[in-house]
Amino acid sequence: MKKSRQKVFMTAGYDTISMGTGRKEFHPKKPRPGLEEYIREAGQGTLKQIGGGKNVDEGVISNFMAARFNKQGNLAALIPSVDEDLRWKPCCRVEGACGSGGLGLIAGTKSVLAETAEVVLAIGVEVQNTVKAIYGADILAGAGWFKGERKKGHAYFFPAAFSVRAGAYFEKYGREKTRQAFARWYRNAIENARLCETAQEFHNTVENLESLALTEPNPQTFVDHLNVFDCSKVSDAGSAIAIVSENGLNRIRIPKSEAVEVVGWGQVEADLTIPPEDPTWLDTTSRAVKKALECAEISLQELGTVECHDCFTISGLLSVEAIGLAGKGEGADYILAGNTSRQGTLPFNTSGGLIGWGHPTGGTGVRQAVTIWQQLTGKAGNWQIPISPDRPYALSINMGGNDKTVTAIVYRRAE
Amino acid sequence: MKYAERLENVTVLGAAGKMGSGIVLLAAMEMADLSLEPGNESLAFSLQAVDISQKALSGLVKYLRSQVQRFAEQKAAWLRKAYEKREDLIENKDVINQYVEDVLAIVRPATEIEASYHSTLVFEAISENLDLKVKLLSRIISNNSRNAWFFTNTSSIPISELNDKANLNGRLIGFHFYNPPAVQKLVELISAESTLPDLADFAKQFAKKLRKTVVPSHDVAGFIGNGHFMRDALYAVSEVERLAEDFGLVNAIYMVNKVSQDYLIRPMGIFQLIDYVGLDVCQCILGVMNERLPGGRLHSPLVDRLISQGIAGGQYADGSQKDGFLKYEKGRPSGVYDPDQRAYAPFSEITEHCHKALGAPPDQAKPWKSVIQHPDKTNYLRGYFQQLKVMNTLGADLAKRYGRKSKKIGLGLVNEKVADREEDVNTVLLTGFFHAYGPINDYFEGEVRP
Fold first, then answer.
1. Does residue B197 share a domain with residue B101?
2. How does residue A252 score in pLDDT terms, banded at 50, 70 and 90?
3. A412, B82, B200, B370: least buried by Cβ within 10 Å?
């Protein structure tokens, strides 16, 4: 990959609460904020830190399926509703299923690199509690290949797709240890989320998380190889971050120490119509990460934290292997040895990840960037981890569909 | 006749009633499921939903639509397989909507009894009125062209009596659902001596397909469920009368209701349960039982008095609770009826005095809901009742007396050969009345006086 011809930074991140089951405020039958409210809260959360909409050149909004969850298209035109100074500025909406957020970050990065913008407001949003889970599953199945896969697919299409991966992994590398690693992954996710007040699992008080997570999967009521604790929840949330050039940073008067630099990225597409060749391997994720690391010219040993796309525990485990931290079939050992916990050598998903923080599908990629910005600039509050000078880099991986649309980004605190 | 054939043409009498509508729902879904099974293509399933009220029948269709959808959402994975060959049904929404259509297409609302003349199975769920049941069933059997079998949902009238009076020749079985049938797991199955063995086998199969818990009851008026409930309720009334001498009737009703709910960890207090069932329904069941079980003194002047004052409980059409012994606000009890004043005394005027009289509740007491979800319910209950045992407040004393009486009633049902086994009595109370423990237990054994 060609080296970028100028530096790109991200700063002024903001997350709304991830709303859904688990939050005390959530009641399925009571009125809740909608798409507009999440976009506005997240957008204004970032604008407040960068001097308002007048400082923004361009807006990008990432979203997966508002057209079905909220009967709303044309989301680019909701960006100006955040601040009247955004009116008449260029905006676009990007979609790549649960990988929409990553695509939005890259779209904004490209605008900065193309020098058509110095300050881009990137917003990610999804509001999914508008329908029952069984109909939400229909909508989310749009991340797969509708014509070729939906008819023969399961009622819970994506949990079943990743259950197939889990089943293949059990078969190849053993079930018991893998399920223990799933349970540890769940525990880490919830324990991290309990420290982060915007997380959906912030209020979780379950004592023995691992034994809960080891609940035997029930194919009669759900899917063959995963239980509900292996899955991220249905979430409503918005996140926003500013993507800026060096000039942009000056304009918005934010010191470099409060920004992260995008030092490398990889964005990779697989063919939606071709099923994964090896269900025990995230090929697209692996390619995206490789590109991002090469672009950043860093080694894995220099990573201080990772935000991976753990829509399911199995995708968390497979990410560990796709990144290259563990060999094939060794991801479970890596997790069980404690490496990915917040006290471990390489803490993963420090605000809870998709399982603990929540998974507002199209917004998740932006939320991951916000978490990393908070962590690297010392703004993570209760959930701050120490960032050692030997490991100053962070990696985010955002995946759309069954390892189809993947964006990996490498960051470090700007200097 | 095979199982599916027997269900090809079903009639539900009283289809728009509280029980009937639930029975229509469950039967129509079972019929739709059969229609989706390979091999049943030639059968034309139809369910005649017969009720005298046209208006109530339109309500039934609305009820069915929402309930079938709810069930379909739960079994979407199965429906996707059942509609596998339908290329046009791709999403969960498609198969769910199709299933709702298919179930509703089976149901034929009707106000004329003639609709049942071609049925292979007739489900009787009309009011608990022997003469009316006999009249309708005998009319159907003398006009029915398909050798129909009959299920009755009676909760009190002996099956043999109904069979003989309506000339059903053993083609009748008691199939007693609990309210609401779509939710409650329990079915009491009552064979008369004359009941055809094939019919009894079919009834068991049907209950199994509906995933119901079947408890066999002998053909004695009231069966197991009302056999316990009615005597339990009469005991509560007798306790009220005893306490009323010291505390007045209103306070006594409040206290016995509270003890039966909070101290005995039941889902609702005994007077709330009577209101839920309906005082008029209770009166009617007591009448049926009293007539057939001489010497049982199954009668309550207090219930009669309230009914004569127009206080009957039961539910409004929208399912909300009507006032009875207690007054309800947003579904929660808020007052107690005073028949002398013909008015409700609000809880705010009662509770302080009553709680003082009852004494402090056991500190281990938990609400019923958290007890049934308790991971170690058995041990919790043992500890709780151990604590109750050594307390000597009025509340604890009432609870212990009540618990022992409830057990005595349960054992009586076994001794009188209404239930085959103690376990059956407990199952009825656990599943049909949602109790946290069966009445036949050793929680109240041995008197301990500190």
1. yes
2. very high
3. B370
| Residues B98/B86, Cβ–Cβ less than 8 Å | yes
Written as six digits, the tokens of A107 are 């779209």
Residue B438 located in a structural domain: no
What CATH number corresponds to the domain at position B242?
Answer: 1.10.1040.10
The model's pTM is 0.90
Tokens of A250: 């000056």
pLDDT in tens, B118-129: 999 999 999 999
B309 and B195, same structural domain? no
CATH, residue A157:
3.40.47.10
Closest-approach residue (CA) in chain A for B78:
A155
For residue A370, give both structure tokens: 């916000």
Domain tally for chain A?
Answer: 2
> pLDDT tens digits, residue range B185-212?
999 999 999 999 999 999 999 999 999 9
Number of domains in chain B: 2
Tell me, what DSSP letter sits at residue A385? -
Contacts of A134 in chain B (CB under 8 A): 73, 76, 92, 96
Give the number of residues written for chain B: 450
Looking at CA atoms only, how far is residue A133 from chain B in angstroms?
9
Which residues are CB-neighbours of B12 under 8 A, at least 6 positions away?
B20, B23, B24, B27, B47, B48, B49, B50, B123, B125
Residues B193 and B233 in one domain: no
DSSP, collapsed to helix, strand or coil, labels residue A15 as strand
Dihedral sign computed on CA atoms, order B121, B124, B130, B134: negative
